[in-house]
Amino acid sequence: MRPLRIHVEGIGLWSKQLGDFAALQALLGGHAPEPPSPKPAATTLPPNERRRAPESVLLAAEVAGQAVAMSGRTADSLTCVFSSSHGDQAITDYMCATLASAPKELSPIRFHNSVHNAPAGYWTIATGCHEPSTAVCAQRMSFGAGLLEAISHALADRCPVLLVCSDIAGVFPLVEETGCTQSFGCALVITPDLSDSTLASLDITLAPIQDLADDALPEPLAGWRTANASAEALPLLAVLARGHGHCELKAAASLALRIELRAAAARQDHAPSRAAEQVA
Amino acid sequence: MPDPMTPLAVTAYTATSAIGHGLAAQFDALQAARSGLRPNDFSSAPLDCWIGRVAGVEDAPLPASLAVWECRNNRLAWLGLNQDGFLDRVRAARQRYGTHRIALMLGTSTASIGETEAAYRRLDADGGFPADMRRPAIHAPHSLAAFVTAALELEGPCLTISTACSSSAKAFANAERLIRLGLVDAAVVGGVDTLCDSVLFGFNALELVSPQPCRPFDAARNGISIGEAAGFALLERVDIAPAAPRLLGYGEASDAHHMSTPHPDGLGAELALRDTLARAGIDADRVDYINLHGTASQKNDEVEAALVSRAFPARTRGSSTKGFTGHTLGAAGIIEATIALQAIEHGLIPGNLGGATPDAGCGPQFAWTNEQRRVDVALSNSFGFGGNNACLAFARAEFAA
């Protein structure tokens, strides 16, 4: 089967150590970037929403905002796919603890913030986006499965898509089950067609897993995937940061996405249109 | 607007809810206008409300080979999978296409959160989960799809869609995209949600739960009745099953308005409807029946009734079936899709149970009691928290747009 080709126009990333994609590039380039402020700024949300929004929403909105800004597109034009292995673990902890002790005292706001699509809801409200939005998960494969969903949207309906994959750190006792001990979020704006904003073109094949290549990551990134399922995106983010290479990501228990960056092809394809514009 | 899509065959489907296990029981209850709602007897401190509880879930343990997945939600999933020969149909599809070529796309709003709630009621002296509750795969929102992929022995794309009450409707859209792109040949879609304290006390906190059986589109409606359900459908290309009913179209859109109340003008709902009609390649006047979202909340029903009035001719019939099943949240999309498919198969428009005194906003489209008539095209509306809207269109095999 012919590979699926998509184009990346924007990349967002946030963790306690790396505040954006440029910081990841710096880290992989051998530098030590400054850590960001301890809480994601999430400036796409209006100030009152930012105050009310739970941590999972701030993280998702932060990386989404970065990716959209880099793409130069308006957020209201993007179909959005929000993926997260565990949703807002702090709210799940609050809900379950309250239900166990005083169920009738459950906070209505925290309840409506507990839905898995809370980040999608806050995001579409903040950006006035009426495009389709979804919230998905697939345990350890939430990034790969979310990417497959984003690709299928982009290619089936020929539309630009915002993919966000993020998980906040868990709290005790739930964290013992989720194993999610640090926050990590990332976002991509992908498109079906090459444009002036294309940063990288990716050829992607979906195939049964045979021997999944272990994409070793340098320190301090090596352990992040264990500490946060959303960080399974890192091999792809590293390929994008380096501007070349390939990686494999699990999209389901028995399926892998084989991803190859085709930067050179993109630039060659790209050149005529840019030249034509200059002539015009 | 999107181009018309190539319809897909719905080669098998099944539903299990408060009105019964399997399609025959569901149809029987619809035909008899018999509600499945009963006074709340769920949880240790039941709220004063009515619920749509599925009978027999407690008495139906998972088979030994799947016992690691035990929880109420997965029991209900298994109970649902065992109705209407659905397991056999999936087995045949597995043989036809191979396990990697069948997607599993399931909607749920709370998955097995009931099990996490139970763990918190029994924390050990150190505040941790008791030993028998140390089950990471269960304390995760993907637990339903992970269980069903094991139960069905599938190895294709596997995704949980969790957009509150539109979840399992959207699963049809996910599946259609994967089939259209040739990434899979077939898809199992559906959804399961079970009663749990999170939703009972959560909707109660939002003052959205009625103390009586819910009364969708009634002038005196005062809130929802929460239910539980499991439903599944198998989607394949039409050439495999030319006589099977069709998924004709679907639409998805966002309100961009509020986390827990719908857009006052039904903007997202209407965009999802227009998207659906465009993919189906039909005008609204070709629609014979709409299974409405109709939760019996003040706002949803007001906005949805207005949408029906302005978008459809008087001959189109519409009703909510939440008076039968309760609001089954993430499973509502698939359950109501099966009711739409049964409307096509049997020519039965189910009456809008519980709407004794129609709201003044309801137009002539509303079917307040059962009607017998031919249905070629049926829609199903599903709207969720966060302003997440989905609409599905089904048609009989012979229908030509």
Overview of the molecule:
- The complex is a heterodimer of chains A (280) and B (401).
- The model of chain A is unreliable at 264-280 (pLDDT under 50).
- Chain A has helices spanning 21-28, 47-52, 55-71, 89-101, 108-113, 118-127, 142-156, 175-178, 224-227, 234-242, 263-279, and strands at residues 4-15, 79-83, 133-137, 161-167, 184-191, 200-208, 246-252, 255-261.
- Chain A contains eleven helices and eight strands.
- The termini of chain A are far apart.
- Chain A has an eight-stranded mixed sheet, with helices on both faces.
- Chain A is an alpha+beta fold and 280 residues long.
- With 401 residues, chain B is α/β, with parallel strands linked by helices.
- Chain B has a single domain, classed as Peroxisomal Thiolase, Chain A, domain 1, CATH 3.40.47.10.
- Chain B is built from eleven helices and 16 strands.
- In chain B, strands 1, 2, 5, 6, 7, 9, 10, 11, 12, 15 and 16 form an eleven-stranded mixed sheet that branches.
- The longest helix of chain B is centred in the C-terminal third of the chain and has 15 residues, at 332-346.
- Chain B is globular, with a radius of gyration of 20 Å.
- The interface between A and B is large, with 67 and 72 residues.
- Strand 3 (133-137) of chain A pairs antiparallel with strand 6 (158-161) of chain B, so a sheet runs across the interface.
